[in-house]
Amino acid sequence: MNKYNSLPEDKAITLKDIAEESGYSIKTVSRAIHNHPDINKTTRKIIMEIVKKYNYSPNWAAQSLRSKKTHTIGFVIPNITNGYFGHVGLSIDRLFRENHYSTLICFTSNNHENEIESLNALMNKNVDGIIFAPVGCEGDYYNRVPGLAKKPLVLIDNICRGIDGSYVLHDNSHGASLLVKHLFNHGHTKIACVTGPVEETSGAERLQGYKNALRNCGLPLDETLIKITNWEINGGNGAVLDLFSSSSKKPTAIFFANHQLLLGGYKALHKLGLSIPGDVAVVSFDPPHVIDALSPRPTTLENFEEKIGSAAANLLLDLISKKREIKENKIRVQGVLRIGASCGCKSDF
């Protein structure tokens, strides 16, 4: 009979108990439980079978006191209604769960004061690191959040003045240029741009990519074809209605700088009785998660949320484990065209 069969039900199983039953050292057992790469698969399988048999759970509180780590990270984002942040978050949480971390999520409702409050709350909880999607380019985070400058921190989606730290960003200009050039190759010369706030990196860089493409294609820049709004569906809807309210210079194609704007654009074009792509060709920087419900399916860049999330999580893990220094690290993720039928092409998916 196994020695644990006679233990009282309230006996807490320890690493030492598992080590004695498995025949391995406490250090080896601990490494196997934490999925350390030095432990071979056979050894880990033997140890984890014992762990599962006794429903052993590591005492994270005790380990935190010894290591001065909480095994938690913070994820600060503007909102959850934008599917982009939700899918980035899922990718981040998955990688950290594999490394025995929990993720605390804070929503800031696109408000700078809420950002400061959220960051201070995470600092007070002594999280091991933070992934942060700022809503603007304010440079006062280090001044208003004590200790943030020394905390492992990765920013996504926006570059902030005064934070020369670690960033994971889409190559916004390159991706926008790809899409606009694709419309030009369909013969369009009156191409409109609907983008979010240019005070934010994503808005400014995607607008710059649009302008670069026009210049490279030999097309003149017409400011009346540029609409700057918020990043939401209502912003896209209003921008498109505004584009077609004039009796002249109506666009024959539209570049939308994110999928929320695209959805608003579809709504407006339907209201105006315009067909896609017959009357107006459209492309979107990123694909909506209801893409299968749209007709025609839009031409976009391929999904990149998982790449952004994975890159940000790996970078933060490196900073936490001190494999990298807390200094400037900038990673750019490049997009690839995903052809739909909204531009006049035959959809390839």
Question: What is the count of distinct domains?
Answer: 3
Give the terminus-to-terminus CA distance: 59 Å
Q: Could you estimate the helical fraction of the residues in percent? A: 40-55%
Q: Evaluate the radius of gyration.
A: 25 Å
Structure summarized in a few sentences:
Helix content is 40%, strand content 15%. It has 349 residues and is α/β, with parallel strands linked by helices. The protein has three domains: 3-58, Orthogonal Bundle (434 Repressor (Amino-terminal Domain)), CATH 1.10.260.40; 70-171 and 305-333, Rossmann fold, CATH 3.40.50.2300; 172-302, 3-Layer(aba) Sandwich (Rossmann fold).
Describe this structure in words.
The chain has 349 residues and is α/β, with parallel strands linked by helices. It has three domains: 3-58, Orthogonal Bundle (434 Repressor (Amino-terminal Domain)), CATH 1.10.260; 70-171 and 305-333, Rossmann fold, CATH 3.40.50.2300; 172-302, Rossmann fold (3-Layer(aba) Sandwich). Helices cover 40% and strands 15% of the residues. The chain has a six-stranded parallel beta sheet with strand order 2-1-3-4-5-11. Strands 7-6-8-9-10-12 form a six-stranded mixed beta sheet, sandwiched between helices. The protein is elongated.
Describe the structure using short key phrases:
349 residues; alpha/beta; 434 Repressor (Amino-terminal Domain); Rossmann fold; 3 domains; six-stranded parallel β-sheet; six-stranded mixed β-sheet; 12 helices; 40% helix; 15% strand; disordered N terminus
